[in-house]
Amino acid sequence: MAKTLTPLIKPLGQALSLLPFILAAGMSTFNAHGKALGQVAPVFPIGEIDMLEWIHQRLKGFEASGQLADMQNEFTERALQSIENPPPVAGLTTTTDPRTFYVDPSITLPKDIIAPTTGAVIAKAGTRVNPFDSRTWPKVDGQDVLPLFELSKVLVFFDARDAQQRRFASEYQNAKPIKWVLTGGSPNKMATLLDARMYFAQQGHLTQSLNITHVPAIAYQDGTRWRIDEVNVSGLQPLEVEQ
């Protein structure tokens, strides 16, 4: 097959080398003998839309019609509403059969932990670390790298939309400082009612990590684990607040 194609390669190369000249000659012939065919459709100038100018003109139109002010007011109202009443954590209910359970806070390191000054590996990927158990913490030369840790606060989860849960929160006391975590309702109103800072369990990440499915729930450190106490509020007098 190779012997059959060999005689064709050289003539083919010569023909390809002449191709630009053939095309140029064809274009010259077309220019010399071609003639105008006339305009067969409307002709428009070629141009590009300046998007910034287009947006500016649209905003001026909205401003003139009053739509811009309406849009700004609507945006402000939505923002204030999301602050005053954040989306509640889905899937949480009250219970009349409260239970106490424990959660292991241990995590598995996804990658090696490197000492920034020496570059030494102080904890390898796959190591299980419990923030409540200093025996599992990374060590260098047998010495603890991190100080001993004890959670000083109690976390109290409750839904402020529920009048009985509001009553529970208003009466609950603990020897440790309380960190209030809302799963629903208005943080501002509860901050005023309890005279305390409110936190919100945004998107339920914290309740999921602590396996909380019923509220109110009290979470605190017990040895090397989280202890979660559910609370039955069905017998409490509802606490109404001004809407």
Automatic annotation (TrEMBL):
InterPro entries: TraW (IPR014114). The lineage of its organism: Bacteria, Pseudomonadati, Pseudomonadota, Gammaproteobacteria, Vibrionales. The gene is traW. It comes from Vibrio qingdaonensis. This is Type-F conjugative transfer system protein TraW.
